[in-house]
Amino acid sequence: MASITLDNLGKVYPGGTRAVGDVNIDIADGEFIVLVGPSGCGKSTLLRMVAGLESISEGEVRIGDRVVNDVEPADRDIAMVFQNYALYPHMSVRQNLAYGLKNRGTPKAEIERRVKEAAEILQIGPFLDRKPRALSGGQRQRVAMGRAITREPAVFLFDEPLSNLDAKLRVAMRLEIKELQKRLRTTSIYVTHDQLEAMTLADRLVVLNGGRIEQIGTPLDVYRRPASTFVASFIGSPAMNLLDAKAVPHLPGTAHAGTIGIRPEDLSLAEDGLIEMNVMAVEELGAQRLVHGRTSGEAITIALPSDAPLGDTLKLGFDRKNLHLFSRDSGARID
Amino acid sequence: MKRTIFNNQLLPWLLLAPQLAITFIFFIWPAGQAIRQSFLREDAFGINTSFAGLNNFQGLLGNAQYLNSMKVTVIFAVSVTVLSMGVALLLAVAVDRMLRSSRVYTTLLVWPYAVAPAVAGILWWFIFNPTVGIMPYILDVIGYDWNHNRSKTDAMILVVIASAWKQISYNFLFFVAGLQAIPASLREAAAIDGAGPVRRFFDITFPLLSPTTFFLLVVNIVYAMFETFAVIDSTTAGGPAQATNIMVYKVYFDGFIGQNLGSSAAQSVILMLIVIALTVIQFRWVEKKVEY
Ligand SMILES: Nc1ncnc2c1ncn2[C@@H]1O[C@H](COP(=O)(O)OP(=O)(O)O)[C@@H](O)[C@H]1O
Ligand SMILES: [Mg+2]
């Protein structure tokens, strides 16, 4: 069990690429933190700096009260689950699970107990004597998790662990990871580019863009009050409508904003609606229908119940409190 | 894919003819000759030839010089293989760590492979030449009296180095390719699992490299046993006192210098059997057993 502090953390790769800059996060003991952002935004780099697989160019990483900048990965009391699982292909599942313990000189009986326990938790008991290549993707994923938990580390690090699974399995494993973390209460940092995965797993989200933090907050906080147009467009599906304030001049109380945001689900059909929309395409999702179109030249999407009437033009209304206003220059939230 | 149909039955054979001719002239016919001669006894002038049964083979197995040649061959082949593969692996591991910046390094290491064996032999013969070479001079400074014309050990060391040197670049390329094929995340996972660099090498890298290693093992043994003729010929010519007279050199020496064709042919047949055995092992093992 440990807290983690990232203090002004930065990374410049040899060659001059700045991958991460000015990252400050305080992670509480037992917290599940998800780093989310588009591909190439520096998530893996950040995680690998915590793991000790990447050198730290600026700032400090503290695990517990200890500065670990110069501590070997093995001595940081962490375990990591890799995107490609990184199972040792020439070792059986049992040996994979035991390897970290064996290297640390854990007594045989203790190793056996922990392997058995992990196998039970993850339901991989029947495969203990198989090689990884004789397992399905989902089973490999479980073994990778098992390898992390047998070690009983203070911190779990996950780098997109579900991205190689098919959609259905991904949803199931997502739940399992959440439950497992709840049960073990191990401080965790989880990296993903999938905002839905991020929303469902996180105690707190860290939204990254171009190596910098855009926002830190609980999933609902971030969803309800995105700190910038970037976060607004990244978190939530379908994405929030972002309209140029000049293009929709009639909305009251928005004079000082550059961009006006409103979520598709916060729009509704209204006779006296202020927004007039030309319908261009409709997506039927079963429970609801997404209607895409334009208003004053700006793209706009609305989520409607599946039985809502359709036409070539729709009048849309909204509640003033559901508007998100952003600065024209920085894209930052202003209210 | 478009399939060409030959109406003329002769044309395919004509197209294959050059390859078939080469195979026949340089491989099948000499092999057949060797097998035939290995059962014959021929006097030194090639006038009288008589059937000798297995006498040539029995003579070899009872011949102290031939048994010595077998021993020398084993020592030589094992030394060349271990040395060339060991050095190549060390270099490959070093390069693998910094591969992006190492293009020059890699190119330099590949040069030796472009050097003909005889030239390599002469090169090393010069370097180790007791009167004009640089190595004996250096060794003399640290108190070692190098002379591969007199010392059996020195001679063996010379031919081993001269033969291994060329093979290092070949092995190196395969090892680098093999190392590059191991995902970095495996070694990273092992690092997190508490394995230091040495442990990581022996627990993860080396086992995963085993298909490459086994392939190279066979290739290097075959090389040391059969392709080092020119190196031996240009450095020690099998001497001193038979110390570097490996089997393939002895075939040549007994046949062409000693004019004992029956015995030489029998030796060729034995070598042929060894090649066949190695090839079988290669196919059986590399394709099936060495996997994970
Ligand atoms: N070893 C490296 N050398 C140089 N640049 C790198 C290296 N690894 C990653 N980068 C760069 O750093 C940035 C962040 O990469 P990464 O952390 O892998 O992003 P993410 O995991 O969010 O997709 C990218 O621009 C990437 O090209
Ligand atoms: Mg990544």
Automatic annotation (TrEMBL), chain A:
Domain ABC transporter: 4-235
Lineage: Bacteria, Pseudomonadati, Pseudomonadota, Alphaproteobacteria, Rhodobacterales
Organism: Paracoccus methylarcula
InterPro entries recorded: AAA+_ATPase, ABC_transporter-like_ATP-bd, ABC_transporter-like_CS, ABC_transpr_MalK-like, ABC_transpr_MalK/UgpC-like, Mo/tungstate-bd_C_term_dom, NA-bd_OB-fold, P-loop_NTPase
Family: Belongs to the ABC transporter superfamily.
SMART domains: AAA
Keywords from the named record: ATP-binding, Cell inner membrane, Cell membrane, Membrane, Nucleotide-binding, Sugar transport, Translocase, Transport
Gene behind the chain: ugpC
Protein name (record): Sn-glycerol-3-phosphate import ATP-binding protein UgpC
PROSITE patterns recorded: ABC_TRANSPORTER_1, ABC_TRANSPORTER_2
Pfam families on file: ABC_tran, TOBE_2
From TrEMBL, chain B:
Residue ranges annotated for the ABC transmembrane type-1 domain, each copy included: 70-282
Keyword terms: Cell inner membrane, Cell membrane, Membrane, Transmembrane, Transmembrane helix, Transport
Cross-referenced CDD domains: TM_PBP2 (cd06261)
Pfam families: BPD_transp_1
An example Gene Ontology biological process: transmembrane transport
Transmembrane segments: 12-32, 74-95, 107-127, 206-226, 265-286
NCBIfam families to which the protein is assigned, alphabetical: PRK10561.1
Quaternary structure (record): The complex is composed of two ATP-binding proteins (UgpC), two transmembrane proteins (UgpA and UgpE) and a solute-binding protein (UgpB).
Name of protein: sn-glycerol-3-phosphate transport system permease protein UgpA
Naturally occurring in which organism (per UniProt): Paracoccus methylarcula
